[in-house]
Amino acid sequence: MNDETQSADAEEDPWAEAMNEQADSEAAGFENLQDDALPSDEEINLDVILDVPVDISMEIGRTKISIRNLLKLNQGSVIELDRLAGEPMDVLVNGTLIAHGEVVVVNDKFGIRLTDVISPAERIKKLK
Questions:
Q1: Residue 79 domain-assigned?
Q2: DSSP state at residue 10
C-alpha cells in the first residue's frame, strides 16, 4: 500500500491507522509478573472475617418423593431416608459439607461429635 491509499483508508476507517501502528510495533514483553492481588501467607489477617455469621446444619439423610406422595403425608407418617441407622451425619456450613459426626445428648440437648473433618483441599474440589 502506498501512503495515499493508507491515508484514504484512515479517513474511511478511523481504526485503520491504529491497526497499522499495532501491526508495525513489537509485542510487549511480560517478564516476572507477580499477582499482587493475593497476599502472602504472612499478610493474611483472619480477624476481619472471624465475626461473620455462618449457618451450620446437620443432615440425617435425604430422599425424593413425588408431590402426590408429599400431599398424602400427615402426622405419624414415616419417610424413608437414604442413610442407614448408625451412619454418621453430615455437618454442613452454608450448605457445604465440612465434616461427619454422630449425635450426642448433653444436658437434655442434642449435639454432634465430629468424627471426620473434610480437608480444605477436598472441600475446594467439591466446589468445582
A1: yes
A2: H
CATH of the domain at 61: 2.30.330.10
Name the one residue in this structure whose C-alpha cell is 497499522: 20
| Domains in the chain, number | 1
Instruction: Write the CA distances from 71 to 51, 53, 66, 75, 79, integer angstroms.
Output: 41, 35, 9, 12, 13
18 domain residue, yes or no: no
Query: What long-range pairs does 112-119 form, CB within 8 A, spacing at least 24?
Result: 112/58, 115/88, 116/88
Count of residues making up the chain: 128
pLDDT 10s digits, 94-118: 888 899 999 899 999 989 999 999 8
